[in-house]
Prior knowledge:
The protein is α/β, with parallel strands linked by helices. The protein has one domain: BirA Bifunctional Protein, domain 2. The chain is 23% helix and 28% strand. It is built from three helices and eleven strands, in the order βαβββββαβββββα. Strands 1, 2, 6, 7, 8, 9, 10 and 11 form an eight-stranded mixed β-sheet that branches.
Amino acid sequence: MENQPCWEVSPGLTEYEPALERMRERAAAIRAGTAEELVWLVEHPPLYTEGSSAKAEDLRDPARFPVFKAGRGGQWTYHGPGQRIAYVMLDLARPHGGVPARDVRGYVAGLERWVAETLKEFGVKGEIRAGRVGIWVVRPDGREEKIAAIGVRVSRWVSWHGLALNIAPDLGHFSGIVPCGISAHGVTSLAALGVRANMAEVDAALRRHWHKVFG
């Protein structure tokens, strides 16, 4: 099939700085035409990452976990066990399914749709909110909680970084930051919503629903 990236799942916990370096190198190789596009699925040890729009005061507990400058857009995020990270490296100079060429906003919207389609398989309605990048779940009492964060970087029209989907992380670890700069809403996970799904099941669903957005 056209426009299908390679898929790779890294076992165990992947250290953050080596992951950054690998993404950087892969993005350059994709741009040079010497490597294929890649969707890389990882888990990280507990850590906080700082996006280009992050405010210093939103790091509430800087001594809690290691802190890294991510080099992506967005604000503060937490990564840790039980959270699936999808690093997506695509050549955005060409179209991918319903995402036009050279359309970064369209690409981010595509990532949001991809997560929402995946969540449907687990009986969860993931919603998109204008002005709030990511995927949100509305609780029965009306509270909105974030289940997936998105932060991307595009270098010479090749994307890297990607999204973080909460499967069963320790949600208490988010309290050390203001996640994505939004304090009015909380965070949730599939486990907190009562969904028993393991990492392999979510990975399979992500792969099944990729074509609905990216062709």
